[in-house]
Each structure stands twice: as structure tokens, then as C-alpha cells.
Amino acid sequence: MIDHQKTFVLAYPWLFRQRSMGVLVSEFEKLKLNITEMRCMVVTPDFARKHLVNIKWDPEAFSESIPLPFASWIDCIAHGPVTAMIVEGDDAVQKVRELSKKQQLPFQVVERKKVYSSDSRGLMKQEVIELWRETVYTSHSGDQAKIDIDLWFGSTDFDETIDFEKRARESTKVVFVLPGGKTYGPLDQVKDVWKRDASYKIKQ
């Protein structure tokens, strides 16, 4: 039975810096999934920690799947702009999870690492190994998606020390879409960047 679902996707700063968001969006659209809400923002380490606790990851633990050069998931998520998305469609949770496990761009990026060891005669030898780093987080179930969406879209508590909507109104670098549909920031400039991305054509 086909089930219309909502799921949550968080694109880490690597995708934003590499201007690969258009590639990510295109992958969802190929499966007839729709992005119904999107937020691009910079979050504090405290908010990143809340997210990690919500998804039951150890905020301080090191994992080889963390994109370089970060030492922890908190460092990664709070380093620069992240993009939070609500993705909807038939069997959206499973389809998006399957996409996120692909060892290919835009869902993972490969790092080639040189490893040195010595053989039985004491001679040094070199090997090159490939490590795949994650560039997105996706909810693993419908229940988890509800928790993730509530945190990222039901709250403006990204930094308790400032007026979030005031920061959004004054933004010159990041586009904010707040609950209720209010949009702040250089939206036209962002669209121009996406138009130059050959992998994605903005729908007028």
C-alpha cells in the first residue's frame, strides 16, 4: 500500500559551500517527491546538540562518516549554513533513506586517504583507502521525522540570546523562510546562484 508521508532532510554545510544543493533537490524530484518547506540557517552549537540528542547520536563522539575537517557532529552542523527540508510524497521516508545511503554525490563524498604500513621484511608500503563521508541526515522513520520537523520547523530557538526574526530581517547572506511563509534575506541572489547551477533549473 502506497503511503503519502512527510520526512525530514538536513543538508550539512559541505553541500552549501560546494553549491550542490541543486543536485540534491533534483534527486528528490526524480522520485516525484516535493520539498514543501525549506530553511537555510546557521545554528548554534547548543541547537546542534539538541538535534543530535533528538536523533540519539552522541554529540561528542567521533565517526569516520563526519565530513572533514570536523572533529564532531556538533562542529560540523554549527560550522556554517545548513539547509533543513520537509520532503513529501509516496513512501517518502523509505525513498529518501535509500537515496541517503548511496555512496555517491550529493549524499556522500569520498575522501582518499594514504595509509602506511610495513611488511614482514620491514619495508614500508603505501595503500590508498576510500572513506565515504555523509553530507545529509535523513529521518529513519515517520515518528522520527515528526520529532525532527517539530525541532527544526516548529521552533525559532536557534540562538536564545538574540531575536531570531530580527536577524532574519537583517540577513544579507542567508535566506530564511519562517513558519507562516515569511521570507527574509537575499532570495533573488540565491535564485541567481541556482540558475548558474547546470544541474538544476529553477521552476518559474
UniProtKB/TrEMBL annotation:
SMART domains named among the record's database cross-references: NDK
Span of domain Nucleoside diphosphate kinase-like: 4-160
Alphabetically ordered keywords of this record: Kinase, Transferase
Catalytic activity as recorded in UniProt: a 2'-deoxyribonucleoside 5'-diphosphate + ATP = a 2'-deoxyribonucleoside 5'-triphosphate + ADP; a ribonucleoside 5'-diphosphate + ATP = a ribonucleoside 5'-triphosphate + ADP
Top EC class for this record: transferase
Gene3D superfamilies reported for this sequence: Nucleoside diphosphate kinase-like domain
Cited InterPro entries: NDK-like_dom, NDK-like_dom_sf
Record EC number: 2.7.4.6
Co-factor(s): Mg(2+)
Superkingdom field: Eukaryota
A matching Pfam family: NDK
Molecular functions per Gene Ontology: nucleoside diphosphate kinase activity
Family: Belongs to the NDK family.
Protein name (Swiss-Prot/TrEMBL): nucleoside-diphosphate kinase
Protein source organism: Papaver somniferum (Opium poppy)
